[in-house]
Amino acid sequence: MAAHVVLYLYIYSLIFFSIFKQKKKKKKKKKGMAGSFAGSVGIGLPCSTKLSHTTTSRSFRFSRVKMAVTLDEKKKFTLKKSEEAFNAAKELMPGGVNSPVRAFKSVGGQPIIIDSVKGSHMWDIDGNEYVDYVGSWGPAIIGHADDEVLAALAETMKKGTSFGAPCLLENVLAEMVISAVPSIEMVRFVNSGTEACMGVLRLARAFTGKEKLIKFEGCYHGHADPFLVKAGSGVATLGLPDSPGVPKAATYETLTAPFNDISAVESIFNANKGEIAAIILEPVVGNSGFIAPKPDFLNAIRKLTKENDALLIFDEVMTGFRLSYGGAQEYFGITPDLTTLGKIIGGGLPVGAYGGRREIMEMVAPAGPMYQAGTLSGNPLAMTAGIHTLKRLKEPGTYEYLDKITSELVEGLVAAGKKAGHAICGGYINGMFGFFFTDGPVYNFEDAKKSDTAKFGRFYRGMLEQGVYFAPSQFEAGFTSLAHTSEDIQHTIAAAEKVFKQI
Protein backbone atom coordinates (compact mmCIF):
# COMPACT_ATOMS: atom_id res chain seq x y z
CA MET A 1 0.00 0.00 0.00
CA ALA A 2 2.78 2.39 0.95
CA ALA A 3 4.52 1.58 -2.31
CA HIS A 4 1.41 2.55 -4.28
CA VAL A 5 1.13 5.87 -2.41
CA VAL A 6 4.75 6.68 -3.17
CA LEU A 7 4.21 5.79 -6.83
CA TYR A 8 1.09 7.99 -7.09
CA LEU A 9 2.87 10.90 -5.42
CA TYR A 10 5.78 10.51 -7.85
CA ILE A 11 3.47 10.52 -10.89
CA TYR A 12 1.54 13.58 -9.65
CA SER A 13 4.80 15.44 -9.01
CA LEU A 14 5.94 14.75 -12.59
CA ILE A 15 2.65 16.06 -13.98
CA PHE A 16 2.82 19.16 -11.78
CA PHE A 17 6.42 19.83 -12.79
CA SER A 18 5.59 19.47 -16.49
CA ILE A 19 2.66 21.94 -16.26
CA PHE A 20 4.75 24.38 -14.21
CA LYS A 21 7.58 24.16 -16.73
CA GLN A 22 5.30 24.91 -19.69
CA LYS A 23 3.74 27.92 -17.95
CA LYS A 24 7.17 29.23 -17.07
CA LYS A 25 8.29 28.95 -20.70
CA LYS A 26 5.26 30.88 -21.92
CA LYS A 27 6.03 33.71 -19.51
CA LYS A 28 9.70 33.76 -20.32
CA LYS A 29 10.56 36.73 -22.48
CA LYS A 30 12.20 35.81 -25.77
CA LYS A 31 15.74 37.03 -26.18
CA GLY A 32 17.26 38.49 -29.35
CA MET A 33 17.93 41.69 -31.21
CA ALA A 34 14.81 43.81 -31.38
CA GLY A 35 13.89 47.21 -32.64
CA SER A 36 10.78 49.30 -33.05
CA PHE A 37 9.60 49.87 -36.59
CA ALA A 38 6.97 52.31 -37.67
CA GLY A 39 6.04 53.91 -40.94
CA SER A 40 3.60 53.93 -43.83
CA VAL A 41 3.90 53.49 -47.55
CA GLY A 42 1.15 56.06 -47.94
CA ILE A 43 -1.34 53.82 -49.73
CA GLY A 44 -3.29 52.21 -46.95
CA LEU A 45 -0.60 49.63 -46.08
CA PRO A 46 0.29 50.28 -42.44
CA CYS A 47 3.78 49.23 -41.41
CA SER A 48 4.33 49.18 -37.67
CA THR A 49 5.70 46.29 -35.73
CA LYS A 50 8.13 45.17 -33.09
CA LEU A 51 10.91 43.26 -34.79
CA SER A 52 12.09 40.25 -32.88
CA HIS A 53 14.92 38.19 -34.25
CA THR A 54 13.50 35.21 -32.38
CA THR A 55 10.17 35.08 -34.18
CA THR A 56 9.40 31.42 -33.66
CA SER A 57 7.93 30.89 -30.21
CA ARG A 58 8.28 27.49 -28.56
CA SER A 59 4.51 27.29 -28.16
CA PHE A 60 4.15 27.81 -31.92
CA ARG A 61 6.61 25.03 -32.66
CA PHE A 62 4.71 22.50 -30.60
CA SER A 63 1.32 23.50 -31.98
CA ARG A 64 2.49 23.32 -35.59
CA VAL A 65 4.42 20.08 -35.39
CA LYS A 66 1.69 18.22 -33.49
CA MET A 67 4.11 15.53 -32.39
CA ALA A 68 2.56 12.67 -30.45
CA VAL A 69 5.30 12.63 -27.82
CA THR A 70 5.72 14.00 -24.32
CA LEU A 71 8.16 16.77 -23.48
CA ASP A 72 10.55 14.21 -22.02
CA GLU A 73 10.60 12.01 -25.14
CA LYS A 74 12.73 12.51 -28.25
CA LYS A 75 10.90 11.95 -31.50
CA LYS A 76 12.55 9.39 -33.77
CA PHE A 77 13.62 10.84 -37.12
CA THR A 78 11.61 9.33 -39.95
CA LEU A 79 10.79 10.33 -43.51
CA LYS A 80 8.10 7.73 -44.12
CA LYS A 81 5.39 10.20 -45.13
CA SER A 82 7.83 12.18 -47.27
CA GLU A 83 8.83 8.98 -49.04
CA GLU A 84 5.22 8.09 -49.76
CA ALA A 85 4.45 11.59 -51.03
CA PHE A 86 7.56 11.73 -53.19
CA ASN A 87 6.87 8.34 -54.75
CA ALA A 88 3.39 9.58 -55.67
CA ALA A 89 4.83 12.83 -57.03
CA LYS A 90 7.16 10.95 -59.39
CA GLU A 91 4.08 9.65 -61.20
CA LEU A 92 2.70 13.18 -61.53
CA MET A 93 5.69 15.45 -62.20
CA PRO A 94 9.06 14.86 -63.95
CA GLY A 95 11.37 13.47 -61.28
CA GLY A 96 8.70 14.22 -58.67
CA VAL A 97 9.64 17.90 -58.44
CA ASN A 98 9.16 21.27 -60.11
CA SER A 99 12.82 22.31 -59.82
CA PRO A 100 15.62 19.73 -60.18
CA VAL A 101 17.76 20.31 -57.07
CA ARG A 102 14.79 19.52 -54.82
CA ALA A 103 15.04 15.85 -55.81
CA PHE A 104 18.22 15.39 -53.69
CA LYS A 105 20.07 13.80 -56.63
CA SER A 106 23.39 15.38 -55.59
CA VAL A 107 23.17 14.40 -51.92
CA GLY A 108 21.28 11.11 -52.09
CA GLY A 109 18.64 9.92 -49.72
CA GLN A 110 14.99 10.77 -49.42
CA PRO A 111 13.83 14.33 -50.26
CA ILE A 112 11.79 15.95 -47.52
CA ILE A 113 8.31 17.27 -48.23
CA ILE A 114 7.72 20.56 -46.41
CA ASP A 115 4.49 21.21 -44.54
CA SER A 116 5.07 24.65 -43.03
CA VAL A 117 7.63 27.33 -42.21
CA LYS A 118 7.92 30.08 -39.63
CA GLY A 119 10.80 32.36 -38.71
CA SER A 120 14.06 30.44 -39.10
CA HIS A 121 12.43 27.01 -38.86
CA MET A 122 10.59 24.60 -41.11
CA TRP A 123 8.60 21.40 -40.59
CA ASP A 124 8.12 18.45 -42.91
CA ILE A 125 5.02 16.28 -43.23
CA ASP A 126 6.55 13.68 -40.89
CA GLY A 127 6.69 16.30 -38.12
CA ASN A 128 10.47 16.79 -38.20
CA GLU A 129 11.64 20.30 -37.33
CA TYR A 130 14.67 21.95 -38.96
CA VAL A 131 16.71 25.12 -38.64
CA ASP A 132 16.52 26.38 -42.22
CA TYR A 133 19.51 27.84 -44.08
CA VAL A 134 17.91 27.85 -47.53
CA GLY A 135 15.20 30.43 -46.90
CA SER A 136 13.30 29.55 -50.09
CA TRP A 137 16.68 30.04 -51.86
CA GLY A 138 17.12 33.55 -50.52
CA PRO A 139 13.84 35.50 -50.26
CA ALA A 140 13.15 34.79 -46.58
CA ILE A 141 15.71 37.30 -45.29
CA ILE A 142 13.42 38.61 -42.54
CA GLY A 143 12.22 35.10 -41.70
CA HIS A 144 9.53 32.84 -43.08
CA ALA A 145 5.86 33.81 -42.83
CA ASP A 146 6.57 37.14 -41.16
CA ASP A 147 3.47 38.30 -39.28
CA GLU A 148 3.57 41.84 -40.68
CA VAL A 149 3.99 40.66 -44.27
CA LEU A 150 1.18 38.14 -43.86
CA ALA A 151 -1.14 40.81 -42.45
CA ALA A 152 -0.35 43.17 -45.34
CA LEU A 153 -0.97 40.39 -47.86
CA ALA A 154 -4.33 39.61 -46.24
CA GLU A 155 -5.39 43.25 -46.65
CA THR A 156 -4.20 43.37 -50.25
CA MET A 157 -6.03 40.15 -51.12
CA LYS A 158 -9.30 41.79 -50.15
CA LYS A 159 -8.83 44.01 -53.21
CA GLY A 160 -7.91 41.13 -55.50
CA THR A 161 -4.98 38.89 -56.34
CA SER A 162 -4.19 40.02 -59.87
CA PHE A 163 -5.20 43.00 -61.96
CA GLY A 164 -3.30 42.62 -65.24
CA ALA A 165 -3.24 46.41 -65.15
CA PRO A 166 -1.20 49.14 -63.41
CA CYS A 167 -1.52 49.47 -59.65
CA LEU A 168 -0.11 52.01 -57.21
CA LEU A 169 1.90 49.36 -55.40
CA GLU A 170 4.20 49.14 -58.43
CA ASN A 171 5.13 52.80 -58.01
CA VAL A 172 5.92 52.32 -54.34
CA LEU A 173 8.20 49.32 -54.79
CA ALA A 174 9.84 50.87 -57.86
CA GLU A 175 10.72 54.00 -55.87
CA MET A 176 12.20 51.86 -53.09
CA VAL A 177 14.32 49.83 -55.53
CA ILE A 178 15.54 52.89 -57.42
CA SER A 179 16.50 54.72 -54.24
CA ALA A 180 18.38 51.67 -52.92
CA VAL A 181 20.30 50.25 -55.90
CA PRO A 182 23.04 52.57 -57.27
CA SER A 183 22.77 51.50 -60.92
CA ILE A 184 18.99 51.64 -61.24
CA GLU A 185 17.29 54.79 -62.53
CA MET A 186 14.32 52.95 -64.04
CA VAL A 187 13.04 49.44 -63.36
CA ARG A 188 10.81 46.85 -65.04
CA PHE A 189 9.14 44.21 -62.85
CA VAL A 190 8.76 40.66 -64.13
CA ASN A 191 7.91 37.31 -62.54
CA SER A 192 11.20 35.50 -61.96
CA GLY A 193 14.98 35.84 -62.01
CA THR A 194 15.12 33.86 -65.24
CA GLU A 195 12.69 36.25 -66.88
CA ALA A 196 14.69 39.24 -65.63
CA CYS A 197 17.91 37.85 -67.14
CA MET A 198 16.17 37.09 -70.44
CA GLY A 199 14.90 40.65 -70.61
CA VAL A 200 18.17 42.30 -69.64
CA LEU A 201 20.15 40.35 -72.25
CA ARG A 202 17.72 41.34 -75.00
CA LEU A 203 17.95 44.94 -73.79
CA ALA A 204 21.76 44.94 -73.79
CA ARG A 205 21.82 43.65 -77.34
CA ALA A 206 19.20 46.14 -78.46
CA PHE A 207 21.03 49.09 -76.90
CA THR A 208 24.51 48.22 -78.14
CA GLY A 209 23.59 46.73 -81.50
CA LYS A 210 25.94 43.82 -80.73
CA GLU A 211 25.12 40.18 -80.09
CA LYS A 212 27.96 38.47 -78.22
CA LEU A 213 27.81 37.93 -74.48
CA ILE A 214 30.44 37.00 -71.89
CA LYS A 215 29.34 34.90 -68.93
CA PHE A 216 31.36 33.04 -66.31
CA GLU A 217 31.60 29.34 -65.71
CA GLY A 218 29.51 28.36 -62.73
CA CYS A 219 27.39 31.52 -62.82
CA TYR A 220 23.71 30.72 -63.27
CA HIS A 221 21.37 33.25 -64.85
CA GLY A 222 18.24 31.18 -65.24
CA HIS A 223 17.33 28.47 -67.70
CA ALA A 224 16.97 30.59 -70.85
CA ASP A 225 18.79 29.12 -73.85
CA PRO A 226 21.67 31.65 -74.11
CA PHE A 227 22.70 31.03 -70.50
CA LEU A 228 22.71 27.22 -70.54
CA VAL A 229 26.31 26.95 -71.60
CA LYS A 230 29.11 24.64 -70.47
CA ALA A 231 32.50 26.40 -70.39
CA GLY A 232 35.23 24.73 -72.45
CA SER A 233 38.85 24.25 -71.42
CA GLY A 234 40.14 27.21 -73.41
CA VAL A 235 40.49 30.80 -72.24
CA ALA A 236 37.81 32.03 -74.66
CA THR A 237 35.51 29.18 -75.62
CA LEU A 238 32.41 29.45 -77.72
CA GLY A 239 29.59 28.04 -75.64
CA LEU A 240 28.04 24.69 -76.37
CA PRO A 241 24.52 23.92 -75.16
CA ASP A 242 24.52 22.31 -71.72
CA SER A 243 21.03 20.87 -72.12
CA PRO A 244 19.25 18.88 -74.82
CA GLY A 245 16.71 21.02 -76.62
CA VAL A 246 18.94 24.09 -76.73
CA PRO A 247 19.98 24.77 -80.32
CA LYS A 248 23.60 25.65 -81.01
CA ALA A 249 22.46 28.87 -82.63
CA ALA A 250 21.01 30.03 -79.31
CA THR A 251 24.37 29.78 -77.55
CA TYR A 252 26.74 30.50 -80.41
CA GLU A 253 27.20 34.11 -79.28
CA THR A 254 27.78 33.15 -75.62
CA LEU A 255 31.45 33.32 -74.61
CA THR A 256 32.69 31.91 -71.31
CA ALA A 257 35.58 32.49 -68.92
CA PRO A 258 36.54 31.27 -65.43
CA PHE A 259 35.32 33.50 -62.61
CA ASN A 260 38.05 35.66 -61.04
CA ASP A 261 40.27 35.30 -64.14
CA ILE A 262 40.64 38.78 -65.63
CA SER A 263 43.25 37.69 -68.19
CA ALA A 264 40.72 35.28 -69.69
CA VAL A 265 38.24 38.12 -70.10
CA GLU A 266 40.88 40.33 -71.72
CA SER A 267 41.64 37.55 -74.21
CA ILE A 268 37.97 37.24 -75.13
CA PHE A 269 37.69 40.97 -75.82
CA ASN A 270 40.87 40.89 -77.92
CA ALA A 271 39.54 37.99 -79.99
CA ASN A 272 36.12 39.60 -80.49
CA LYS A 273 36.84 43.30 -80.92
CA GLY A 274 33.73 45.44 -81.29
CA GLU A 275 31.38 42.45 -81.10
CA ILE A 276 30.60 42.05 -77.39
CA ALA A 277 27.38 43.57 -76.12
CA ALA A 278 27.80 42.85 -72.41
CA ILE A 279 29.32 40.90 -69.58
CA ILE A 280 26.86 39.33 -67.16
CA LEU A 281 27.96 37.90 -63.84
CA GLU A 282 26.94 37.15 -60.29
CA PRO A 283 29.14 39.62 -58.36
CA VAL A 284 29.31 36.96 -55.66
CA VAL A 285 28.74 33.52 -57.13
CA GLY A 286 25.95 31.59 -55.45
CA ASN A 287 25.39 28.79 -57.91
CA SER A 288 28.79 27.11 -57.59
CA GLY A 289 28.62 27.40 -53.85
CA PHE A 290 29.61 30.70 -52.26
CA ILE A 291 32.53 32.25 -54.21
CA ALA A 292 33.55 35.85 -53.55
CA PRO A 293 35.39 37.97 -56.13
CA LYS A 294 39.11 38.63 -55.70
CA PRO A 295 39.84 42.16 -54.41
CA ASP A 296 40.28 43.89 -57.79
CA PHE A 297 38.31 41.56 -60.07
CA LEU A 298 35.09 43.59 -60.29
CA ASN A 299 37.00 46.85 -60.78
CA ALA A 300 38.95 45.29 -63.64
CA ILE A 301 35.76 43.99 -65.25
CA ARG A 302 34.19 47.44 -65.00
CA LYS A 303 37.26 48.98 -66.65
CA LEU A 304 37.28 46.45 -69.51
CA THR A 305 33.62 46.97 -70.36
CA LYS A 306 34.06 50.73 -70.55
CA GLU A 307 37.16 50.40 -72.74
CA ASN A 308 35.32 48.09 -75.13
CA ASP A 309 31.94 49.89 -75.22
CA ALA A 310 30.22 46.91 -73.64
CA LEU A 311 27.64 46.95 -70.87
CA LEU A 312 28.26 45.47 -67.43
CA ILE A 313 25.31 43.52 -66.01
CA PHE A 314 25.19 42.45 -62.37
CA ASP A 315 22.88 39.51 -61.77
CA GLU A 316 21.83 40.35 -58.22
CA VAL A 317 18.90 37.97 -57.99
CA MET A 318 20.69 36.41 -54.99
CA THR A 319 22.89 39.26 -53.74
CA GLY A 320 20.40 42.10 -54.15
CA PHE A 321 19.33 43.47 -50.74
CA ARG A 322 21.22 40.60 -49.10
CA LEU A 323 24.86 41.70 -49.02
CA SER A 324 23.71 45.22 -48.23
CA TYR A 325 20.59 47.30 -48.76
CA GLY A 326 22.02 48.42 -52.10
CA GLY A 327 23.19 44.93 -53.00
CA ALA A 328 26.65 43.78 -54.05
CA GLN A 329 27.20 46.93 -56.09
CA GLU A 330 26.85 49.08 -52.98
CA TYR A 331 28.90 46.63 -50.90
CA PHE A 332 31.82 46.58 -53.36
CA GLY A 333 31.43 50.14 -54.64
CA ILE A 334 31.10 49.06 -58.30
CA THR A 335 28.22 50.45 -60.37
CA PRO A 336 27.16 48.31 -63.36
CA ASP A 337 25.08 49.55 -66.29
CA LEU A 338 22.23 47.10 -65.72
CA THR A 339 21.06 44.95 -62.81
CA THR A 340 18.72 42.00 -62.39
CA LEU A 341 16.87 41.40 -59.13
CA GLY A 342 14.48 38.82 -57.71
CA LYS A 343 13.75 36.80 -54.57
CA ILE A 344 13.94 39.38 -51.73
CA ILE A 345 12.11 42.14 -53.63
CA GLY A 346 9.05 39.86 -53.70
CA GLY A 347 9.24 38.90 -50.04
CA GLY A 348 8.81 35.22 -50.90
CA LEU A 349 6.31 35.62 -53.74
CA PRO A 350 7.25 35.10 -57.41
CA VAL A 351 9.01 38.23 -58.70
CA GLY A 352 11.91 39.51 -60.75
CA ALA A 353 13.11 42.86 -62.05
CA TYR A 354 15.71 44.45 -64.26
CA GLY A 355 16.82 48.04 -64.29
CA GLY A 356 19.61 50.44 -65.03
CA ARG A 357 20.49 53.78 -66.56
CA ARG A 358 17.50 55.73 -67.87
CA GLU A 359 18.88 56.02 -71.42
CA ILE A 360 19.14 52.22 -71.61
CA MET A 361 15.83 51.42 -69.95
CA GLU A 362 13.93 53.77 -72.26
CA MET A 363 14.63 51.23 -75.01
CA VAL A 364 12.03 48.95 -73.35
CA ALA A 365 8.51 48.93 -74.81
CA PRO A 366 6.29 50.88 -74.74
CA ALA A 367 8.86 53.67 -74.24
CA GLY A 368 11.10 52.11 -76.89
CA PRO A 369 11.27 49.34 -79.50
CA MET A 370 12.59 46.40 -77.39
CA TYR A 371 9.59 44.25 -76.57
CA GLN A 372 9.00 42.40 -73.31
CA ALA A 373 5.71 41.76 -71.51
CA GLY A 374 4.10 39.70 -68.74
CA THR A 375 0.51 39.21 -67.59
CA LEU A 376 1.38 38.90 -63.88
CA SER A 377 4.23 41.43 -63.84
CA GLY A 378 3.76 43.91 -61.01
CA ASN A 379 1.37 41.53 -59.26
CA PRO A 380 -0.15 43.36 -56.23
CA LEU A 381 0.65 40.54 -53.81
CA ALA A 382 4.32 40.36 -54.79
CA MET A 383 4.59 44.15 -54.65
CA THR A 384 3.07 44.19 -51.16
CA ALA A 385 5.38 41.52 -49.78
CA GLY A 386 8.37 43.26 -51.34
CA ILE A 387 7.46 46.65 -49.91
CA HIS A 388 7.18 45.36 -46.36
CA THR A 389 10.31 43.24 -46.63
CA LEU A 390 12.41 46.18 -47.85
CA LYS A 391 11.02 48.45 -45.16
CA ARG A 392 12.24 45.98 -42.55
CA LEU A 393 15.68 45.66 -44.14
CA LYS A 394 16.19 49.43 -44.19
CA GLU A 395 16.09 49.65 -40.39
CA PRO A 396 19.37 50.26 -38.52
CA GLY A 397 21.36 47.23 -37.42
CA THR A 398 19.93 44.79 -39.97
CA TYR A 399 23.09 43.91 -41.84
CA GLU A 400 25.25 44.09 -38.73
CA TYR A 401 23.06 41.40 -37.23
CA LEU A 402 23.25 39.24 -40.34
CA ASP A 403 27.04 39.61 -40.33
CA LYS A 404 27.20 38.58 -36.68
CA ILE A 405 25.17 35.40 -36.88
CA THR A 406 26.59 34.32 -40.25
CA SER A 407 30.17 34.75 -39.06
CA GLU A 408 29.38 32.66 -35.98
CA LEU A 409 27.87 29.97 -38.18
CA VAL A 410 30.62 29.71 -40.80
CA GLU A 411 33.52 30.03 -38.39
CA GLY A 412 31.91 27.43 -36.13
CA LEU A 413 31.29 24.97 -38.97
CA VAL A 414 34.79 25.29 -40.41
CA ALA A 415 36.43 24.98 -36.98
CA ALA A 416 34.35 21.91 -36.14
CA GLY A 417 35.19 20.28 -39.46
CA LYS A 418 38.91 20.88 -39.16
CA LYS A 419 38.91 19.67 -35.56
CA ALA A 420 37.41 16.40 -36.78
CA GLY A 421 40.14 16.09 -39.40
CA HIS A 422 38.22 17.11 -42.52
CA ALA A 423 39.41 19.28 -45.41
CA ILE A 424 36.98 22.19 -45.31
CA CYS A 425 36.88 25.91 -46.10
CA GLY A 426 34.13 28.49 -46.09
CA GLY A 427 33.23 32.12 -46.50
CA TYR A 428 30.40 34.61 -46.05
CA ILE A 429 29.26 38.17 -46.59
CA ASN A 430 26.50 39.30 -44.27
CA GLY A 431 23.49 37.03 -44.93
CA MET A 432 25.06 34.79 -47.60
CA PHE A 433 27.55 31.98 -47.00
CA GLY A 434 28.98 28.70 -48.16
CA PHE A 435 31.49 25.97 -47.33
CA PHE A 436 33.34 23.33 -49.35
CA PHE A 437 34.82 19.97 -48.43
CA THR A 438 38.24 20.94 -49.76
CA ASP A 439 41.21 22.82 -48.31
CA GLY A 440 40.69 25.67 -50.77
CA PRO A 441 40.97 28.44 -51.57
CA VAL A 442 38.02 28.39 -53.98
CA TYR A 443 38.13 31.13 -56.61
CA ASN A 444 36.05 29.58 -59.41
CA PHE A 445 33.97 26.58 -60.40
CA GLU A 446 37.00 24.43 -61.20
CA ASP A 447 38.24 24.97 -57.65
CA ALA A 448 34.78 24.21 -56.27
CA LYS A 449 34.67 20.89 -58.16
CA LYS A 450 37.65 19.70 -56.10
CA SER A 451 35.24 19.33 -53.18
CA ASP A 452 34.48 15.88 -51.81
CA THR A 453 30.84 15.77 -52.90
CA ALA A 454 30.32 12.25 -51.54
CA LYS A 455 31.37 13.45 -48.11
CA PHE A 456 29.10 16.47 -48.43
CA GLY A 457 26.21 14.10 -49.14
CA ARG A 458 26.91 12.13 -45.96
CA PHE A 459 27.26 15.35 -43.99
CA TYR A 460 24.02 16.67 -45.46
CA ARG A 461 21.97 13.61 -44.58
CA GLY A 462 23.48 13.53 -41.09
CA MET A 463 22.54 17.16 -40.51
CA LEU A 464 18.97 16.50 -41.60
CA GLU A 465 18.67 13.90 -38.87
CA GLN A 466 19.98 16.49 -36.40
CA GLY A 467 17.34 19.02 -37.47
CA VAL A 468 19.40 21.26 -39.78
CA TYR A 469 18.43 22.00 -43.39
CA PHE A 470 21.13 23.20 -45.79
CA ALA A 471 20.80 23.47 -49.58
CA PRO A 472 20.87 19.91 -50.99
CA SER A 473 23.97 20.51 -53.12
CA GLN A 474 27.64 21.26 -52.47
CA PHE A 475 27.35 23.87 -55.20
CA GLU A 476 24.68 26.14 -53.71
CA ALA A 477 25.12 29.08 -51.35
CA GLY A 478 23.33 29.22 -48.00
CA PHE A 479 21.34 32.05 -46.44
CA THR A 480 20.68 33.35 -42.95
CA SER A 481 17.86 35.64 -41.87
CA LEU A 482 16.92 38.14 -39.22
CA ALA A 483 14.88 35.37 -37.61
CA HIS A 484 17.93 33.19 -36.94
CA THR A 485 19.07 33.32 -33.32
CA SER A 486 22.27 32.52 -31.48
CA GLU A 487 20.46 29.41 -30.23
CA ASP A 488 19.89 28.33 -33.85
CA ILE A 489 23.57 28.82 -34.63
CA GLN A 490 24.76 26.95 -31.55
CA HIS A 491 22.38 24.09 -32.28
CA THR A 492 23.74 23.90 -35.82
CA ILE A 493 27.38 23.89 -34.75
CA ALA A 494 26.73 21.27 -32.08
CA ALA A 495 24.95 19.11 -34.66
CA ALA A 496 27.84 19.54 -37.09
CA GLU A 497 30.38 18.50 -34.46
CA LYS A 498 28.43 15.29 -33.97
CA VAL A 499 28.06 14.58 -37.70
CA PHE A 500 31.67 15.42 -38.53
CA LYS A 501 32.75 12.67 -36.13
CA GLN A 502 30.40 10.18 -37.82
CA ILE A 503 31.50 10.79 -41.40
Condensed summary:
The protein has 503 residues and is an alpha/beta fold.
Walk me through the structure.
The protein is of the alpha/beta class and 503 residues long. Helix 4 (147-157) packs antiparallel against helix 12, helix 8 runs parallel beside helix 9 (297-307) and helix 13 runs parallel beside helix 16 (486-502). The chain has 16 helices and 19 strands. The strands form five sheets. It has an eight-stranded mixed sheet with strand order 6-15-14-13-12-7-11-9, sandwiched between helices. Strands 3-4-5-18 form a four-stranded mixed sheet. Strands 16-17-19 form a three-stranded antiparallel sheet, covered by helices on one side. The protein has helices at 2-27, 58-65, 80-89, 147-157, 168-180, 193-208, 248-251, 262-271, 297-307, 327-332, 358-361, 380-393, 398-419, 445-448, 453-465, 486-502, and strands at 34-40, 46-52, 114-118, 121-124, 129-132, 186-190, 212-216, 229-230, 237-238, 240-241, 254-257, 276-281, 311-315, 338-342, 352-356, 425-429, 432-436, 468-469, 478-479. The chain has two domains: 28-146 and 397-502, Aspartate Aminotransferase, domain 1 (Alpha-Beta Complex), CATH 3.90.1150; 159-393, Type I PLP-dependent aspartate aminotransferase-like (Major domain) (Aspartate Aminotransferase, domain 2). The chain is globular, with a radius of gyration of 24 Å. The chain crosses the membrane at residues 6-22. Keywords: Isomerase, Membrane, Porphyrin biosynthesis, Pyridoxal phosphate, Transmembrane, Transmembrane helix. One of its GO terms (cellular component) is chloroplast. It catalyses: (S)-4-amino-5-oxopentanoate = 5-aminolevulinate.
